[in-house]
Each structure stands twice: as C-alpha cells, then as structure tokens.
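User: tokens in, sequence out, please.
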C-alpha cells in the first residue's frame, strides 16, 4: 500500500515537540496544496480532567485554513484516543483533504490519516514557512458595512444576521485591486421563484443555484496565481487608439491579494427562491432606541495558488461572513454584560513562532485589563509562552495598502545566516521593529539625528511587542522629555545637539517605563569581548541594542561569535541612511548587514544601551 504524504510547517513541528505542548490535545488546521494536505496550525488545551474535548478556534485563523485533523501531546496517549478526538471534527469543507492525527513519539511526531474508520500511518514531511508562502496566496477583503437597528438584543442579533446574508448572497460582490476584475454571483435561473411560502424542507436551495461570474480579462480556467497580472490599473489609451509604447509593466507578486466589498443591488433577488417575487413592505410606527454602527471589514483568507480563480468566491464570502459573525459575538457579549455597544475593531497579529496570522475582534472601548483572561487562554491554546504579550491591541500588525509606501519592518529577516562566522553562537533580535533612519517624515536630521533614530527603532520594538502604548516620539518630543526630567536645559529643545546611549535609556524609562542595562568598552577594538554578553541579551531579552561611539550611533540587531577563533560579526541597522525605504537598496548597500570588527572605530569609546523586556506581562 502506498503511504500518503502529509506536510507540516517547521514552526508548528517545533511547537508540537516543545515543552509548552506537553499534555495538550486539540485540532489541527491546514489546507490542500497541489493535492497534499499541509498542516499549518494547531490549537488545543491541557487534558487536566482526563477529557479530550476538541477546542475549535478556526474563527481566528484566515479562512481556508480549516480543521484537517487532531493532535495529542500526552505521553500516555493511544491511537484509540486519537480516533475519539477525530470524531469531534466538523465535516470537511475541503474535498481532497483526508483527516490526519498527530501524536508525539519521543522527541519526534508520528502521523496517521483517518480513512474508513481506521488510522493509517502516513509520511510526514517538514517544510518551511517560505515554502508555504510560495505555494499559497493570502487574500485580504476590506469594506465598510452599516448596522442600523433597534437597541435590543434580538434586534442586534437580527441586524447582524441580515449583514451576513447580504455579503454571502448575490448582492455581495468583490472587486479586486487594480479595478480590472470583479467577482460576482450569478443566478442559474430555472424558473419563477416560489417565494418564502414554500418550506425549505419541500424545496431546499440547491448548491448549484448560483455561480461565480468573473467580470474582466480573466479566462474561465485561470488560477488564483494568474490574478496577479491584473492587480495594476489597466493601461490608458495613448490618444492614438492604442496603448502606451513603453510596453506592459511586469507585475510582481505581493504579500497578499486585495479585494473590496461592493454591493450589487441590481441583482434580481437575494436568493434564487425569491426571483420574480413581489416585495412586501411592513410599516410599523413606534418609539424606540436605535443604534448605528460602522462595521469595518478587514478579513483574511489563504488558498493554494493553483486553485481555480472561480473557486475563490467561497473564500471571499467565507472570510467576510466569519468576520461579521465574530463582530456580532463581540457586540452581543458587550451588550449582554454592560448594556452598552462600542464599535468592533479588527486586529491582525503576527506571532514570531506561528506561520500564520491571528485575527481577533476587540471592542473599541476595551482596554488591556478587560481581555487579559482571554489573551491568556489564547496563549495557552496556541502553546505560546505566557511571559510576554502577543495579542494586545498594541501588538496588532498594521496591514497597509500594498501600493502605498510605509516604513519597513524587520529589514534583516532575509540575511540572518549571512554573518560569515563558521560555527560558534548567534543571537538576534526577537519580534518586530520599524526601521527609522535619517530624513524620514520629511525631517532633515542628517548629521545629528542618528541616536534619535535608533531610539525610535527601539521604542517601535516595545510598541509592536505590546509592552507600551506610547507612540514613537519625534526628535522634539525626545528633547522635551530630557528637559522635563532635568537632564538638559530648555534651549536643548529645537536644537541639533546629539544624544547618546545614556539619554536613550532616560527616554525609555520616562516615556515607556522600560529599564536598561549598559555595557561600555574603552575602544572599538574591545567590542568583541562583549559578544557573549550580547548573545545572552538577545536570547533572554530579544530587544534591539543602541550603541554610541565617537560621532556615530547604530542599532545592533544581532551578533555571531566563534570563541575558538575569536571571530565576531555584528548585525547592524544603520540610521545614517538617507534614501527612500527601498529594501533592495538598503540590503545591497549594507545599510542593514553583518559587519566585522573593522566596522568600529578602533580607538573610540563605545557605550551600549540594552533595554530590558518587562517580565510576566501578557
């Protein structure tokens, strides 16, 4: 018998074999890529009561990453227990996915496929997150809906129900970025509708009563990957009846494919059963309290790049309907507890150890304390450490328009292994930061603002890790902070005077309540003697380090050190860059890169500010 292959992302493999998974069991989530089931996510709970009840959390995952199996990381688990867990799975939504079961086998994993009531051994292949991204496309759907209804629990519930019907019925259509392609519902009309008078038991809606129609220059056999070609606006006529002579611009694949909700109200009806039916209007005049809420949709999906473009409609509808449902749960929960309603807000989170995004709906009125217990449950469900925040509002990833230029995040991520140090140890920054450098935001600080920019990068790290709500300060705000604490005179505000590592530490403590540790050397030639200290810092704290010496300041993102050869390399983020935020230029010209000992001024005094991460914060 041929053994089937199942793929798992390396990050997930590491979590399932790590200490935080011990005693946990739960659901596996994934999708089919080229006919192979790829397991992307896992979420569960500890079996403290001996029961292995399946906890489903697919509502926080991108649509398309659906339950595909179960896992257990209990030392005493048996295959029969796996069968019991698998029976709790919801019906499969992906036709070519066979449910899988994963269990720990010492320090490795054993995988089975569930077929005809039996567990059949399968082959487990580990792939990287990069390989997953190369073979899938992330879908993002945005739009604004309005909820206007009575201020009662039944009316709120009914209002959200109607919103879900609106975006999933043929009124709901989806325009792709570039304004060339629109995904529409299309009725397959078989005759006059029977209306609502005939029960759904007598005449259920058939699955083939509607279809997806793609408006635009897309062939009926196009794949999702083919859609990238149409994500740029169509080339305008050159005035002579033809296109520009410059030739067609190559469209590069981006992080995600953007869609926008549009309501096609010219459709004959919201369902095939009401085609040709006359509307009935019920009018009732009464006095009551009403509410109007803006519902801002920002939903995600993931599909195989080889999927048929027409099949994308199911993911488009699914991710929006799921998000409206989650918003309804948020609003109804707040109303039930407090008799108040605040705008539900979408937050996307990118946890370093997870190969997928997490989406959570928080009420706009909620603060960090309100959902502390919920966040702790999320940490435990996804087998994440509980000593640092991952799901605070301030942790949220800002997904900007793909065609707009924003400051760069984690510019070092593709050069982690380019340090050139054979053997030895390596320590690098953990989490997300923003690259701040000279001349950004139309502010000329060339020649004096390097330490300010390094400080901005440090604060961006603490903000994006959820440790502070403090926004990244301007140069003037940094100067005012130092004046307010008595470190500088009032004339310092608005000047072009430098600051150093000590002042960076003062601002971190004052503005963000962050303590810092300082390490100094009398010359650049001695910096390699502190390599082990830096490695320990990156492993324990994970924060970027500001270093000042001579007339320059830099940000250290990592260090590689081989003790036998006394060879050291530093991963440097250079704030002296004055160009545009072009990643290729920044990396190719060395504005972010690994530097040898020659990079440092061999005779200058250097002082390093090592910010300390707050402990046991969630």
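Assistant: Sequence out:
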């Amino acid at each position: 018998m041929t053994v089937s292959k199942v793929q798992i992302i390396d990050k997930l493999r590491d979590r399932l074999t790590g200490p935080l998974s011990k005693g946990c069991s739960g659901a596996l989530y994934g999708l089919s890529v080229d006919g192979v089931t790829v397991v992307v996510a896992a979420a569960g709970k500890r079996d403290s009561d001996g029961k292995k009840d399946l906890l489903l959390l697919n509502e926080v995952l991108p649509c398309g990453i659906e339950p595909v199996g179960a896992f257990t990381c209990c030392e005493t688990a048996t295959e029969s227990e796996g069968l019991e867990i698998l029976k709790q799975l919801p019906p499969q939504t992906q036709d070519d996915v066979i449910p899988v079961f994963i269990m720990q086998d010492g320090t490795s994993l054993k995988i089975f496929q569930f077929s005809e009531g039996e567990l059949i051994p399968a082959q487990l292949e580990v792939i990287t997150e990069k390989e997953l991204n190369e073979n899938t496309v992330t879908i993002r759907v945005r739009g604004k809906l309005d909820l206007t209804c009575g201020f009662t629990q039944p009316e709120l519930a009914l209002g959200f129900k109607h919103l879900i019907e609106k975006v999933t019925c043929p009124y709901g259509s989806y325009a792709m970025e570039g304004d060339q392609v629109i995904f529409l519902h299309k009725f397959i009309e078989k005759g006059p509708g029977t209306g609502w008078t005939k029960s759904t038991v007598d005449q259920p809606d058939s699955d083939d009563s509607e279809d997806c129609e793609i408006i635009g220059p897309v062939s009926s056999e196009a794949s999702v990957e083919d859609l990238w070609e149409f994500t740029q606006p169509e080339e305008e006529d050159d005035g002579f009846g033809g296109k520009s002579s410059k030739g067609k611009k190559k469209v590069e694949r981006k992080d995600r494919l953007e869609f926008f909700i549009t309501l096609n109200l010219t459709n004959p009806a919201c369902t095939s059963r009401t085609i040709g039916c006359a509307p009935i209007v019920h009018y009732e005049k009464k006095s009551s309290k009403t509410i109007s809420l803006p519902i801002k949709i920002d939903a995600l999906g993931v599909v195989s790049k080889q999927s048929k473009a027409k099949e994308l409609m199911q993911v488009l509808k699914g991710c929006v309907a799921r998000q409206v449902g989650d918003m309804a749960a948020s609003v109804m929960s707040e109303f039930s507890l407090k008799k108040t309603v605040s705008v539900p807000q979408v937050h996307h989170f990118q946890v370093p150890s997870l190969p997928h995004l997490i989406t959570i709906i928080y009420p706009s009125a909620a603060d960090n304390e309100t959902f502390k217990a919920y966040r702790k449950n999320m940490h435990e469900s996804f087998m994440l450490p509980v000593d640092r925040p991952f799901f605070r509002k301030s942790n949220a990833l800002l997904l900007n328009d793909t065609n707009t230029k924003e400051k760069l995040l984690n510019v070092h991520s593709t050069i982690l292994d380019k340090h050139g140090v054979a053997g030895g140890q390596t320590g690098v920054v953990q989490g997300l930061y923003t690259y701040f450098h000279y001349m950004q935001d139309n502010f000329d600080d060339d020649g004096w603002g390097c330490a300010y920019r390094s400080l901005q990068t440090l604060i961006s790290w603490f903000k994006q890790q959820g440790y502070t709500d403090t926004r990244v300060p301007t140069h003037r705000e940094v100067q005012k902070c130092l004046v307010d604490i008595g470190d500088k005179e009032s004339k310092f505000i608005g000047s072009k005077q430098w600051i150093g590592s000590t002042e960076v530490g003062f601002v971190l403590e004052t503005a963000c309540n962050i303590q810092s540790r300082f390490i100094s050397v009398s010359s650049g030639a001695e910096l390699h003697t502190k390599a082990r200290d830096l490695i320990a810092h990156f492993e324990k704290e994970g924060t970027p380090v500001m270093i000042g010496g001579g007339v320059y300041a830099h940000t250290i993102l990592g260090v590689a050190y081989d003790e036998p050869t006394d060879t050291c390399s530093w991963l440097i983020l250079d704030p002296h860059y004055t160009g545009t935020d072009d990643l290729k230029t920044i990396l190719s010209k060395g504005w972010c890169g690994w530097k040898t000992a020659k990079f440092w001024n061999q005779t200058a005094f250097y002082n390093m500010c090592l910010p300390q991460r707050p402990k046991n914060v969630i």
